[in-house]
């Protein structure tokens, strides 16, 4: 299994025959140069979306059309897009699990907000979510944008993820110290990868507080477009 950071909250997850783009943000992403867009998306088989804020969704419809691949996400938004945008979607809801080629993806709660812009102003796009992704003997928890929440208690106990991808930049999500607290209290990660940081000055620029708070955990500070073997 390989994981490639696309900057901010976006990732490319490669496993078996699947290449899943998680919250891919290309247009206007200050961390991902335009010359890297093709490499970031070529060969993708699915798009996995946690919520509809612009820095996660602005390229999703165009990518789905260009690559002729489905978007996977929360039922309300997927149903709306299937009806109004003519794209292929797979909609499900919290607690549900879907099989996607050699992956199993379970939707879990997150604590954030979830709106998108329309000609008539902001609209709610269902609810924000995270995912437990099972593949190659691992369970990867992709938190999406979230704060610490009590649901992490049962999520860690029930799904037992060994790899975590946590939004930890602060301001819009939990910060590095909070992510370290959540990881230590609720999970038993062997490997942890922070994201949603370094993009803007208002966000955290280093994961050192996360590293310091989790001795014994392999905390990897990802580099844009550099493979991480899991």
Secondary structure elements and their pairing?
Blueprint: E1 2-5, E2 11-15, E3 18-22, H1 37-41, E4 46-48, H2 54-57, H3 60-67, E5 71-74, H4 75-84, E6 89-92, E7 97-100, E8 103-109, E9 115-118, E10 121-124, E11 129-135, E12 138-142, H5 151-159, E13 163-167, H6 176-186, E14 191-195, H7 208-213, E15 218-219, E16 227-229
Parallel strand pairs: 3-4, 4-5, 5-6, 12-13, 13-14, 14-15
Antiparallel strand pairs: 1-2, 1-16, 2-3, 7-8, 8-11, 9-10, 11-12
Structure description:
The protein has 230 residues and is of the alpha/beta class. It has helices at 37-41, 54-57, 60-67, 75-84, 151-159, 176-186, 208-213; strands at residues 2-5, 11-15, 18-22, 46-48, 71-74, 89-92, 97-100, 103-109, 115-118, 121-124, 129-135, 138-142, 163-167, 191-195, 218-219, 227-229. It has a single domain (2-229), classed as Ribonuclease Z/Hydroxyacylglutathione hydrolase-like (Metallo-beta-lactamase, Chain A). The protein is 23% helix and 31% strand. β2 and β3 form a beta hairpin.
Summary keywords:
single chain; 230 residues; alpha/beta; Metallo-beta-lactamase, Chain A; seven-stranded mixed beta sheet; 16 strands; 23% helix
